[in-house]
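Cross-posted from the bioinformatics board.
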Amino acid sequence: MEIVVISGKGGTGKTSIAASLAFMASQQTVLADCDVDAADLHLILHPRILHREDFYSGVKAVIDPEACSACDLCRQRCRFAAITNSDAAYAVDPLACEGCGYCHQLCPSQAISLVDCKVGECYRSQTKLGNLLIHARLEIGADNSGKLVARVKKEAQQAAESEAMQYILVDGSPGIGCPVISSLSGADYALIVTEPTLSGLHDLQRVWELASSFGLRLGCIINKSDLNPQLAVRIANFLQQKGITLVEELPYDDDFQQAITLGKSLVEIDPGKWQSRFQTIFDKITKETR
Amino acid sequence: MKIAFTSKGPAWDSPMDERFGRTDYLVILDDQSMELTAVSNQDSQAVAHGAGPKTAQKLFDLAPDVLITGNGPGGNAAAVLNRMKIKIYTGAGGLTIRSAYEQFKHNQLKGG
């Protein structure tokens, strides 16, 4: 059974909540960090890397200096100003190149080729809890993509199958774009973490539109619920109207900040306060998917 | 009638792929002849962004009347498919092509 934690809006506490849920059934769970733009589950779960693989995505232009006739056409036409010509040698600035391939089409000397780009690495790791975490790290300037999320999820599904794990817990990315669509594909349950702000409500509505079209079971946690009680009520009304389970309302708590600073989860820094609370949340979710 | 399936393999007993945009195969069933035609979707899997619309384009060319898939297409792909007036059925993620077809015939899938 695959549970994806998403938020619509960033900064709602999605990863803090996902990390604490990771402690609930850790010996039956494979974890996947699909928020690859800002992957941070590893900061809390301190994984030991067991296996790493390069990840390629997209292309970049490369100029063969032997074949280049220095006609300057590519430099003039590149919309990203990615072509440089210092000392009469033409070259592509890899950070500026968007891989559109226009120069490749244009070059009268066929001196420009498009090569696959290594944009990061994908890891299978063992966390401090002993279970597996599939995660990835992007290089500077690379962005998360549906392709990378699909890769991380596929590895997590294979790991869950080979280790006979009951649950896959996915930390999804914020927003409603390609990586989020990709993280919802194949999931059974989406847990939306929101906060009582206007943008929290707005982004909740947008992510609901997406997730509901995927036919997933949906639950929501309103984090920092006491910061704006009126908006928390509006959110609760929206959830009721759309048939989304309100799994829990968590009042604002300094422990979130404290836990992040210490590189720990909430359930580690104050088990008495958080253990049973997150167990209840986890049980509610797993009960609904049964 | 032509029915399209998103699947992980080309045969009747291949498991369905719950993904739309990054499905391994599109398999088309002609329910007159009951023959399957499989189209690899590797090129759509290779793109970083926009796999859904790319697969929708492919489906446009194949012109089926019905699509059976797992979770369903995302927003952009759904917009394309709606214009094509394809009937979309979801919830077939855990099945094989054969059992998905059976469920479709017996109106057990969501959508339409």
